Every structure is written in structure tokens, then in C-alpha cells.
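Exercise 7.
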Amino acid sequence: MPKASKSPEKPVANAVRSMTGFGRVERSDADGRVCAEIRSVNGRFLKLSVKLPPRLGAFEDKIKTLLAERGVRRGSVDVMLFVETAGASENGYEINAAAVKAYAKQAKAVGKALGIKGGLTLQSLLGLPGVVGRAESTEDLDAAWARCEKALNEALDRFDEMRVKEGAALVQDVRARLNEMRAHRDALAVSAPEALNRNVVKFKERVEKLLQKAGIDQPLDKEILEREIVLASDRMDISEELARLDSHFAQMDAALADGAEVGKKLDFLTQELFRETNTVGSKANDQSITHRVVDMKNLIEKIREQVQNLE
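Solution. The predicted structure, written as C-alpha cells, is:
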């Protein structure tokens, strides 16, 4: 006796979901067979494509409503539904015998009147208008939708289960990268004052060399020198950027903890992380800090790649 397939667990309502997912269900019973398949990849907005049998075209709006109720908000989503009703013709087409008879009668009369000889075959008549058409459906659409809705919901359960699992893996990776970013930020907080002192010494040395080059023996006025040092130090101070990095880290942590639709918010915060990190590199003017900033930018790019896959 074959083992029954394990039903997917219902995902947590506020779980972070990936935009990549797949779910497929095939159900057969006395009424026929229904196959529902849902797949998606990441996308900036919701792009939905629904493929249905022509006779069930009215179900498209119902499917869109169902996906909205199930929380599908972003991504490029394809929904395919195949429905086979027991006892129904496979292709749903039929030949109009009355039209064939009328065409044959008229063709025979015209041929006799004009003296045209030639055999008339069924094949020559099949392409004429009204001879072949889609058979009128006697299918109960309400009953058909009930069967389709059940299959779609089961496929959505599997689809959502995959998205939640993938989302959890992405969140874990993003948190690991954020922890690395925090370590870099803390190291910058320690090294920044040292780098600032080194830059002040270099500034004084440059001033002395410029005075010597200009042949000025008299030292620069102390108050002027101190004022310039203060201005230069203010331009190289990265304490505000480090504070904003901390704020962005906290906001990203909160968003990941809250769950649900976080992709757009995290993408925005990632851009802000890059902006602050880039400013640190521009202001610090120190080789050791520059090397660390390069590592931070690499981490931010990896975070960006992951959050762009989150719904």
C-alpha cells in the first residue's frame, strides 16, 4: 500500500517569505482530474500570469483573488490549471453535420450548373466557416471551481511552505552578514580616533613643508593652525556615520523580527548602509579604514542580493 503524501505544515502568518517558490498538486476523483501548479521568481512588483483551459477563462479573476487572500504580493508568478472532466471530450470540438450537408448540397448544385466536375470530400469541407466548432459546455462551473479551488489551495500550501523555508534561510544569511557589519563598525569606532590623530600629525607636517618650500622662516600663527586643524578634524570625523549605521542595523533587525513583507524596506535600508559606509571611506582618509570599508561594501552587496529575493 503506497504511503500517503505528507501534508505541508501551515506557515506562520508573519514569516519572512522568499519570492521564489513552487507548488504542484494533482487530484483525481469520479468527476475527473485537476492539476494545479504555481511557481514564482523574484520581481520588483507582482506580475501574475494565469494559464487556464479556454472554457474556464472566467476563473482567472477568482484565482487572482485567491492569491491575494493567501498573501502573494510580489514576484513574477505563474499559475497553471488543467481540468479534465469525466466523460467529456478531450478537445471539446465537434463537427456541425448540418453545415456539412448544406455546403455539400450547394457545391453539387453549383458544379452541375457550371459544368464543373470534381470529387467532393469531407476533408475539403472541414476548413469552411461553421463546420468545426467548440462544443457547448454543459459543465457545472460552480462544481468545477470547487474542485479547482481545493487543488489550488493545496498547491498554494506547498508553494508557501517552500517560500517560508527559503525565506528563513535568506534571513539567517542576512543576519550573519549584519553581524559581520557590526564587527567592522565596532572596529571603526576604535580605530577612527587613532586615524584622526595620524591625519592631524600629517596635516601639521604638510603645513611645515609648505612653509619651508615657500621660504617662510616664521612659524604659522598658532590660533590659525588650531582652527584649521579643528576644521580638518571635523571633515574627517565619522562618528555620525557610525551612529547612523547602528540605527540602520537596529531597523533591519526589527524588520526581520516582525516578518511579513520586508523586502522593500530591507532593500531601502541596504542602500542607506551603503551610503553611510561610502561616506566613512570618503571622510576617514586612512588606509586601514579604507580596507575595512571595502570589506563592508562587499558584505552590503551580498545583503542586497539576498533581500531582493524577499517578499
